[in-house]
Amino acid sequence: MNQLKPQVNPPLWLLAELTYRCPLQCPYCSNPLDFAQQEKELTTEQWIEVFKQARQMGAVQLGFSGGEPLVRKDLPELIRAARDLGFYTNLITSGIGLTEKKIDAFAEAGLDHIQISFQASDETLNAALAGSQKAFQTKLAMAKAVKAHGYPMVLNFVLHRHNIDRIDRIIELCIELEADDVELATCQFYGWAQLNREGLLPTREQIARAEDVVHQYRQKMSASGNLANLLFVTPDYYEERPKGCMGGWGAIFLSVTPEGTALPCHSARQLPVQFPSVLENTLQEIWFESFGFNKYRGFDWMPEPCRSCSEKEKDFGGCRCQAFMLTGNADNTDPVCSKSPHHGKILQAREQANCTNIQINQLQFRNRANSQLIFKTGV
Ligand code: SF4
Ligand code: SF4
């Protein structure tokens, strides 16, 4: 048995989840189901201290996300501090709450990059998914304003069974808005997306059709000199091997929740693992010494079939959160893997996707009332 400690390099990427507050209610939100119980947020000074420590350790990229990070009034101050420390900064936003004035303030503070997420390519579907009538027009206006300010712009669409068949119109909209990069990412099933999985998972046929459309657009766009990058991410529910989650547990990525819990991936707080707080430990201690960050590093923790598998250095046994959500034990092989004894759960979900008829209005929307109800009833 290999008892050598795995080599641990410092984190490269810090994700600052500034808040769980958000005006929208996407039923696929990756925030925790009990977000309404977590009302505390780090102060401006506490966040800046986190940025300083991460930068001292060598992190180079800093993402501001949430919830909706725009609800933090100190966002320009946080951006400026991050930029002064030498981070490449990225704002991940729904665009709701963005104004021309704020874009000016962010540009002045040194923000490098803005990613705006859309729910759909048309107003009606966007409103049904976001739970807001005004959201679509605001997003359009802000996407144009972001572009006009000279930012490289990423547009992000989360795809699922209710919008994936309109992928051609989604791409057309991205072309019209002159996006530099387009992320067409099928729902990953964490948080609210996992709760609504049966009503969100596309069928294999839907994914194949969408892939085909993306392929045609790539050819068409490149022939017309449009260099925008179309990234299409398929759900791992239709794969036979899991993804190498976060490049490995505690390998390059560090996420900090609104109230200061440090996590090796943004959905790990659901695991029955004690994760440290940035209010009680330095990032150096958290990253190199904490129980939570070391728990799934290396290969010694792995059960079979991963332990003796020749592919373990490629995928690290898959996603711990997915293993926990689908098997009740985070140590297990990710059920996406066809070698997993729990792979049947994935096959069952695929079957379900072929038969289900869940409509958008039957999904559980991510809002405070639902979050409180889930917490109370423990659903
Ligand atoms: S996914 Fe939707 S609800 Fe969740 S934080 Fe983003 S915009 Fe808000
Ligand atoms: S058995 Fe484990 S290591 Fe091997 S391919 Fe499957 S998930 Fe990856």
From TrEMBL:
Top-level enzyme category: oxidoreductase
Functional description taken from the UniProt entry: Catalyzes the cross-linking of a glutamate residue and a tyrosine residue in the PqqA protein as part of the biosynthesis of pyrroloquinoline quinone (PQQ).
Cofactor notes: Binds 1 [4Fe-4S] cluster. The cluster is coordinated with 3 cysteines and an exchangeable S-adenosyl-L-methionine.
Sites where the protein binds [4Fe-4S] cluster: C22, C26, C29
Residue ranges of every copy of the Radical SAM core domain listed in the record: 8-224
Catalysed reactions, semicolon-separated: [PQQ precursor protein] + S-adenosyl-L-methionine = E-Y cross-linked-[PQQ precursor protein] + 5'-deoxyadenosine + L-methionine + H(+)
Pathway in which the depicted protein is active: Cofactor biosynthesis; pyrroloquinoline quinone biosynthesis
The EC number(s) this enzyme carries: 1.21.98.4
InterPro entries: 4Fe4S-binding_SPASM_dom, Aldolase_TIM, Elp3/MiaA/NifB-like_rSAM, MoaA_NifB_PqqE_Fe-S-bd_CS, PQQ_synth_PqqE_bac, PqqE-like, Radical_SAM_PqqE_MftC-like, rSAM
BP GO annotations: molybdopterin cofactor biosynthetic process; pyrroloquinoline quinone biosynthetic process
Entries under NCBIfam families matching the protein: PQQ_syn_pqqE (TIGR02109), rSAM_more_4Fe4S (TIGR04085)
Protein name per the record: PqqA peptide cyclase
Keywords: 4Fe-4S, Iron, Iron-sulfur, Metal-binding, Oxidoreductase, PQQ biosynthesis, S-adenosyl-L-methionine
